Amino acid sequence: YSAKESGEGYRFFTEEMNLRAVERMELENSLRNAVQNDELVVYYQPLVDSRSRILGMEALLRWQHPALGLVKPSVFIPLAEETGLIVPIGEWVLQTACLHTKKLQALHHRSLHVAVNLSARQFREPDLVACVEKALRISGLAPECLKLEVTESSIMENPEEAIVKMTALQEKGVRFSIDDFGTGYSSLSYLRRFPIDTLKIDRSFVSESLANQDDQEIIRTIIMMAKNLNIETIAEGVENRAQQEFLNCQGCRIMQGYYFGRPMTYDDFRDILKYNLE
Ligand code: C2E
Ligand code: MG
Ligand code: MG
Ligand code: MG
What we know:
Elements: H1 3-6, H2 21-34, E1 40-48, E2 54-65, E3 69-71, H3 73-83, H4 86-108, E4 113-117, H5 120-124, H6 128-139, E5 146-151, H7 152-156, H8 159-172, E6 175-181, H9 188-191, E7 198-201, H10 203-207, H11 213-228, E8 232-235, H12 241-250, E9 254-255, H13 266-275
Parallel strand pairs: 2-4, 4-5, 5-6, 6-7, 7-8, 8-9
Antiparallel strand pairs: 1-2, 2-3
Bound molecules: ligand C2E and magnesium ion (MG) (3 copies).
């Protein structure tokens, strides 16, 4: 039963499973070569408004391993973090996503923004600001079209440093989202100290939003508080129409999820943009 046949990437490596030492070393070695061998691919998942119009996309990394098939980020991102490989890989993702976005804007004559995930390790890098500026410079993408997704925990590691870096980029026009919001421990009033443009409501609340009263209440509270602070909300993991309607009613403006589109290749994303009215 091969990985390719399963269609879900290599079945052996699951999130729950600790990789055996040998497998880990093998994976680590091949990850080292993945960038040079052109095995990394950036996928794009649409971000839509309440009328299902595409406003932008999130860049999501995939590893097309020659033997293992498509390896999911939940397997190799933690490994890339531990080894530090996430730094060159993350820089490559940033540059690729900016270049692709600039191309799509030109091709379709429309304004699109791209959201790029930054890992804690990347965020800690002293030259983060220069690295982002470089990606903008070589792509020619307007800074306003780039959103960086950070997690609560990565900015809380060193809040003072985070504020300095985020402010420097914000002054250039770059915006920030808090990813997986609601899963950390920080309160919104504390997060207000950071220059944050968007909160992404974690998928776990959205997926239970129809069945679970508590999750509904959490979503309502996040949206209401964000609105009072003039912060945008994005719901991630929207999988059906009922969830979309619930979120719409609560005043969530932007959504992302399989219901609107799965992460896809640049070419596929370019093609679906043709049929999506601005
Ligand atoms: P994330 O940033 O929270 O990204 C959203 C994840 O939810 C993606 O998983 C996406 O495919 C998935 N998703 C979106 N809509 C739905 C839905 O309706 N249902 C379900 N079940 N899932 C949905 P993915 O692509 O596997 O990425 C997982 C995580 O890996 C990301 O979570 C992010 O933390 C990390 N990641 C991905 N690409 C990068 C990258 O370039 N750099 C870094 N540092 N991390 C990345
Ligand atoms: Mg994200
Ligand atoms: Mg997220
Ligand atoms: Mg998430």
